[in-house]
Every structure is written in structure tokens, then in C-alpha cells.
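Predict the holo structure. Ligand: S-adenosylmethionine.
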Amino acid sequence: MAGEGVERLFDGVYMVGGKLATVNLAKGHRVYGEGLVELGGVEYRLWNPYRSKLAAAVLNGLKTMKIAHGMSVLYLGAATGTTASHVSDIVGSGGAVYCVELSERNMRELINVCERRPNMLPILGDAMHTDIYSGTVDSCDIIYQDVSAREQAQILLENSRFLKKGGYAYFVIKSQSVDVGMDPKKVFESELKNLRGRFDVIETVQIEPYDELHLFTVLKKL
Ligand SMILES: C[S@@+](CC[C@H](N)C(=O)[O-])C[C@H]1O[C@@H](n2cnc3c(N)ncnc32)[C@H](O)[C@@H]1O
């Protein structure tokens, strides 16, 4: 039961004083300058939809939220850990977030975040080359992918080997990374078409005004 002034939206996801939040797994510590709010003995971390596409999707009416307590998540394109840290709050200490990131610069900041969060594991590497982490990542319940790379559908297909049958993928399509000259709608269609036969499209969510030229999608592995 959420306390007074707190509304539960999904497992581990709340509205606190009208703002989206998760319960801070690393009490007293911020990841990206976000606000911390103490209510009823619980420390909430405000979740900025302008910094996190998952937060934007939740605020824009995402219905299918399968990321929950105890789950194991393969996170592709973790950057400096903004969204990954909220996913870490949601899955809690019984869950795991395997954070794959290509940029060494981002990785340095990500490691600092992971040091305070035992359920987050940083992996420096290209998500296209899954053999690098196949010995580390076990089968997972969820893939969360937000990579600024050209072959986005291809990266998801490569990584689907880790996803349990019936598992969900949160797949953010960034049209500018695939083709800057193409109509974004056409890019979204063609990326989803590349996944046909391997995934069902469960839901798509527009994330404007928080972010443009992206489509947030929820897929289920067949
Ligand atoms: C938009 S940012 C991710 C933001 C992050 N998901 C968040 O919400 O906090 C995209 C990230 O993908 C990373 N990236 C691009 N290509 C990649 C690849 N092939 N493998 C792993 N990471 C990649 C970039 O270095 C960048 O940090």
C-alpha cells in the first residue's frame, strides 16, 4: 500500500506529489541531479521524463509495464545510467540489470552508479557483438533497448537469444540514428517489420513532448 500523497502506478512506480518517482535503492544518493522526497519513511527518487524515455512513456499512458520486482533485465545502451538506475529501483535487490554500453566515457560514470547499486552490472561493449557478454548474462525476463545505432532492429534480434520465450522487449526506435533523411514514420515501420516473426508488437507509445523523433515500443518474444 502506498502512503498518503503517493499513488502507485505499477510495481515500483509511483506518483509522488504529482511527479513520477521510484523508491531509491541507494538511499541518499542521486544519479543525475534528480529530486529526493522522503514520505512515510520511504525515500523516493523523482523520475524526469525529459531525461528518460521510459518515464515519458509511462506519463504518456504506457499500459504494458512488465518490468517489476525481482526481474532480470538486459539493458542495451545504458549511457550514464539515468533510466537504468530507475529500472534498478523497480527490480529491487532481488533483481538484476545488466547494463551494456559502448562508450568508454559514459561507462566511467555508469560504473560510479553501479558501485552503489549491487543489482546493476556494467558491461563495456557493442550490443551487436553479444559473445562478449554471453558468459556474463544469463537468460533474462526483459530487454530494454535504447541505442543510438543504425542497426537497431538487428541489435535486438542478436540479443533476443538471452530473452526468455514470452519475455518482453522495451524497444526505443530512434529514427535519426537509422536514417536522418527518411520520414520517421517510415523508419519506425521498417524497423518493426524487421522484427516480424520473432516478436509481436504489443504497444507503441509516442513520447512527445518529452522527446521527438523516437517511438517507444513494447514487444513480446514469440
Ligand atoms: C540515447 S543514449 C541512452 C540513454 C539511456 N538509455 C537512458 O535513458 O538513460 C544511447 C546510448 O547508446 C550507446 N550505444 C550506441 N551504440 C551502441 C552499441 N552498439 N552498443 C551499446 N551501446 C551503444 C551510446 O553510447 C549511448 O550512450
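The mean pLDDT is 95. The pocket of S-adenosylmethionine is lined by residues 52-53, 76-77, 79, 82-83, 100-103, 106, 126-128, 146-149 (CB under 6 Å).
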